[in-house]
Amino acid sequence: MASIIIVGLGPGPSEALTREAGEAVLQAVELHIAGGCEPGCDTGAGTCLCPQLPDVDAAALAAHVVERAKKGADVTLSVPGDPADWQALLQEMDELATPLGIVVRRVSGVSLVSPVLAALGFAALPGLYLTTAAQLASRPHPSFAPDCPVLVMQLRSSSTLAALQKTLLNQYRPDFRVALAHSAGRESEMVKWVALGELSASTRISHTSALFLPPGDEMDGFGGLQAIVAQLRGPDGCPWDQEQTHRSLRANLLEEAYETLAAIDSGDRAALVEELGDLLLQVVMHAQIAVDEGEFDVVTLVSGINKKLVRRHPHVFAGLSVEGVENVLRKWDEIKAAENSGKAREGGDSALSGVPIVLPALAQAQTYQRRAARVGFDWAELDGVLEKIQEEIEELRSARGSEQKTAETGDLLFTLVNMARWLDVDAESALREANARFRSRFEAMETRIGEQGGKIREQSPAGLNALWARVKEIKES
After folding, report:
1. Which end of the chain has fewer CB atoms surrounding its CB within 10 Å, N or C?
2. What pLDDT is recorded for position 35?
3. How many helices (DSSP H) and strands (DSSP E) are in the chain?
């Protein structure tokens, strides 16, 4: 039966290579080398450990080696440092080799971690989170808290460093200071502190490079927000926060949502950051109220939405082939309908069930129409909608009495929303933007009239129309 030997080569220089590791490399029948080495690095027998597989991730490297072993080869895989420095690789290797009866043996080497810690000035570092650049860069968000000390090994290349920086900036500020350690334990050892936002500009990167993130401010992370809200509602917290309930915060949640929309419409990035923070606070407040009342906890909330997203995106997470946005949305509705079967919902099994009755009227109308269209109830083309608009206008002209006029106005508005859907325009946003334009132009008219010592109510309709046209022309120029 073929075997796999994983040999630790230590930090690089031949004098750091253990005797057992050196013998394992010299006796190897088929040698594979993970990572790269510094110029002049050798096994003590003059064999340069040049980078042969520097950018292969743990899963691919393990599969490659196990595949060679399956064909009957005794494979030796040499890795920088100690095999224990490559936990992801070891796990992948064991999972693939064990079911096949392939024996995996490890030959220890001098760890890369100890020299790096020494270069940083630490004899030991309690609570240290150890990971590799490939593992961390593959995630959209760090899997550790910002107040945890972190050591990232095997930076390997500038491209890996850029991907790593992108992940870390989802948790740390760009000005957060981090340390790059190069060639730790060797004569060329160097430690350089840089701002995280400048990390990708670093050029001296190899498999012996490591990144150290010191403990950050807990207040910069989501956990910090949870802790603050919990304290505000705690026994020694704020009386106002302590009294809040899900119902008492309904207006606040709606207000923050609309202020976030206003920030998006304004294009003001700083305002959007602030308003999204205020909106997030509302979510965390409701979650903490639920915890305090024993209703549910934050883990249940987050786990629920995580599972729902994965379940409703089989084309992303389960390999299902779905082409085009419309087919994606149709599949979403099918999955959602299956999930909701048996649930007591207003409207039962209707395609329109589950649409919140508290939605603004335009948004509610567009949602109804979009859902109806997905099950085939729709016009064949836009011209049909435009003809319907003309029909509704004529019906409104002939309407008599308040009740009929109200009904026909509603029908016209509903059909205009349908036109917006056909044009791929969000009716709610379009009207909100039109409101903003009207206010801006109207206030400009008031300003011009006031500068001339007049009042808007004293102007003639013809004069106002002429001034409106001039203001509109200026605003659009």
Report:
1. C
2. 52
3. 18, 9
Q: Are 289 and 245 in contact (CB under 8 A)?
A: yes
At residue 360, the pLDDT reads 83
Count the Cβ atoms, other than its own, within 10 Å of residue 286. 19
Between the alpha carbon of residue 340 and those of residues 240, 303, 343, 365, 376, the distances in Å are 37, 18, 5, 22, 21
Cα distance between the two ends of the chain: 80
Other Cβ atoms less than 10 A from the Cβ of 46: the count is: 7
* Rounded CA separation 188/461 (Å): 83
pTM of the entire predicted model: 0.57
* DSSP structure string for 405-431: HHHHHHHHHHHHHHHHHHTT--HHHHH
- DSSP assignment of 241-303 equals HHH--TTTTHHHHHHHHHHHHHHHHHT-HHHHHHHHHHHHHHHHHHHHHHHHTTS--HHHHHH
CA distance 250 to 241: 14
Burial state string for 375-388 with b = 16 or more CB within 10 A and e = fewer than 16: eeebeeeeeebeeb
Task: Give the contacts of 12 (CB within 8 A, at least 6 positions apart).
Answer: 37, 38, 41, 80, 183, 185, 186, 208
C-alpha to C-alpha distance for 314 and 317, rounded to whole angstroms: 5
Residues 385-400 pLDDT 10s? 999 999 999 999 999 9
Average pLDDT of every residue of the chain: 83
Task: Please give the pLDDT value at position 166.
Answer: 92
Residue 6: what are its φ and ψ, rounded to 5°? Answer: -105, 115
Q: What is the DSSP string of 124-173?
A: --TT-EEEEHHHHHTSSS-SS-TTS-EEEE---SHHHHHHHHHHHTTTS-
Angle subtended at Cα 340 by Cα 339 and Cα 341, rounded to the nearest 5 degrees? 95
- Cα–Cα distance measured from residue 437 to residue 443, given in angstroms and rounded to the nearest whole number: 10
Mark out the alpha helices in 267-400 (DSSP H runs).
269-292, 298-311, 314-317, 325-340, 361-374, 382-397
Three-state DSSP at 455 gives: coil
Question: CA–CA separation, 62 vs 79, rounded Å?
Answer: 12
Residue pair 223/141 in contact (Cβ under 8 Å)? The answer is no
- Amino acid at residue number 144: F
Return the pLDDT at 345: 52
Give the Cα separation of 32 and 13 in Å (integer). 19
> 121: closest CA among 191, 187, 178?
191
Nearest to 374 by CA among 330, 423, 332: 330
Q: d(Cα 432, Cα 265) in Å, to the nearest integer?
A: 9
With CA atoms as reference, report the closest residue to 5 among 85, 100, 73.
73
Nearest by Cα to 105 from 4, 30, 2, 31: 4
Residues of the chain with pLDDT under 50: 36-55
